[in-house]
Amino acid sequence: MTVAPSSITSLAELAGRPLAEVLSGCRELLEDMDFPTVHAWKEKGGTVCGHFQVYFPEELAHAAGMLPVKVRGGPVEMRQADSHFGSYLCSVIRSSLELALGGKLPLDFFVTHPICDAARNLCGVWARNFAYPSRILYLPQNPNSASSAEWLRGEYARLLRELETVSGHKATDGDLRNSIAVYNENRRLIRALWAVKRDTPWLLGVDEAYALLAVGSLVRREEHNALLAAVLPLFASRTARKQDKVRVVFEGGFCEQPPLDLLGVVAQSCYVVDDDLLIGLRFLEKDVPAGPDPLASLAWTYIEGSGYSPVQHDLRKPKERMLLERVKGSGAGAVILAAAKMCEPGLDEQVAYSKALDEAGIPYFVTEFEERMSSFDQMQVQLETFVESILFD
Amino acid sequence: MGTPLADSTIVGRGGRDGARLIRDWFGTLAAAAERGDPSVYVFVMGSMAEILRAFDLPLVFPEINSLQTAVRRVSHEYLGAAEDYGYSPDICGYVKADVAMQLQGGKHPMGRIPKPALAVLTNACNTYMKWAEIWERMYKTPCFTLDVPGSRSAPQNGASTAADDENDRRYVEAQIRELILVCEKLTGRTLDLDKLATVLRHTNDMAASWKRVLELNRHRPSPYNALVDGTVYLGVLNALRGSALGAEYFRDLVEELEYKNAHDMGALADERARLLFVGVPCYPIFRRFHEIFADHGGTFVSSSYLWFAAGGLDLGFQYDLSRPLESLAEGVLKSVRHAGDSMLFPDRALLDAAELYEADGIVYHPVKSCRTVSTGLAGSRRAVMKERDIPCLFIESDMMDQRVVSEAQMKNRIDAFFEGLEARRLRLAGSAA
Known about the structure:
By secondary structure, chain A is α/β, with parallel strands linked by helices. Helix content of chain A is 45%, strand content 11%. Chain A has a four-stranded parallel β-sheet, with helices on both faces. A four-stranded parallel β-sheet of chain A has the order 6-5-7-8, with helices on both faces.
């Protein structure tokens, strides 16, 4: 699928436009694999910190004066990246490298995380191909240790030091507090957006909410806050009518992202009232407290106030229990259990989720996707059949 | 090292004793399963054998159990059972073989595996965590994840300061102390520090010997095949880590290999190509894989598998027995990090090994089942070939799944590789003349 390049280089350009235009503008920007906002930032002399899925403490890069950008692949044609990898690999790993190798996503610093066995390799892959620094950020996989928050604080300090070197800006505690406040506001607005989708899903489709969320990872968060603050009041005056659709949770979008058209297909037959799409952008469910030590506050919130995903191991958060809570909390009656092709954490979790949903008597629809897929007819028929089986049960 | 005094009867002892020790070890596990004794499931990268052995807890290595199903050519039965249960063909075959084993009450080609009373894992591999979560669900097994922060970038890029490393070491030590509390609760005993020191001493001996074993294969001809014999040695290294029996085995092995080198006894009678192996062995056709190379006079003189699957013991780290827990934390951090580096940042180590072992070529064998090892190998090959004029072969298959092992296709590629090696040899000889 070819998408016309977006002319949007700042979300401010969408200010004051009607809701439909804002939504289509966000979608255009999101699907533009030339990343115009990132290039515009660079042209102004800014530096860019690209961070691979899932969670990254963007506050650090923001405080260092950088533009934090989520590296989440995309539906691009592989010209160079495939020759750097073997066969058995998900698409997002390949497409992320393709975007960087092709110069579409210009970075000054790259961070990956050991979210899966493939992604932990990206630091080495980047180091072979780019002159700018690439790093691994280890987030605790033993958050149950009494020492994990203190250790993570040190890890954040190390990372900040390196970001400062690249940006040339030394982040003060004041900078950090300001960034945390900006992101706390962003978290509040995203929660409000997700509440609209949960409580009045006929006013806000999953694909629309997703586009509004995802553009936040392409701009400085102040811009995103302004957009969300302007858009949120507009939904109430939307004229869409409530329909007899099944309320579902979409699970499986924590890393590789399904195409927007796939979400559109889902939205045609279901109300997606909660999901884990781009969960890393809203992984901290609590606001980060304004403590005396901003880095310690950020670390503490990760340990004590984060959500769940298949890539975090926390004894307090068995994933299947968390999914059941998500279903209950959103008033969903069914689940779409998706996984990206070749995604081990997602595919592993599908088994546990499906057993738990069986036990709980909650209907679910299992599917695999790829970011580059462009035909959804078969999935649409299967999903409609699934929905009908629930509606007429 | 003095002149070996041993006689020729020790030749082959490492292989024979290794096979016997592994059989015996599986026998003890089967007996534990029969008695219903508690066992601890651990992994090769960061097994924490030192702590667990000090509590006399039997160790079960699910990775070794799983690979045995492939070596014994029954892995397809296990994979099929796990896929029927719901697991995807695209996930790690080791995990699936273990799931099937658990669903069959621990039934295994070499006996029976006891159920886990505790699982201890590190973050060296993400699949370890997903795997342990399965036992949590099946048995409510308590799982202890030991976070061992790895290198933040290629080691030569030097992203860490001494203070950073100390932050990591303190974190590992704090977690080890928490693990000890878990073991004390499980066994009802307090940690015996004298016993821990004894176990650490055995591991020190094994680490020193293992380092020496790897060095001894630099000899021309190489005394063992790093892929075939090396994997047997590796099994003993992991299963008997921290034991007197393990330390004795490796002392004997060093003696045998030194004897062989003193008498120029190679693994192959006619060693024509010295190769490095990168990746995980092709267990479904384990012997055959080696034979295809051996038929051309090719032998594996070193293997990255003997680095990472040894949990980094090839570093030869020596624990300081006067401060056991602090030193254990340092050793675990350095060794597991080293194991990780050999998978995530292998280029420098491979270039060095090519030099040290006078390698004629490198065989990259990425597998479907293990993305940790395999994801970066195509790029590594490009980087290594850019820096050193060395032929590299890249063949993909799997360590468990026969469905993606095409022996005929593999043989064609290997034959062509050796034709290339021979042509290169003639060309170089011609240039020299």
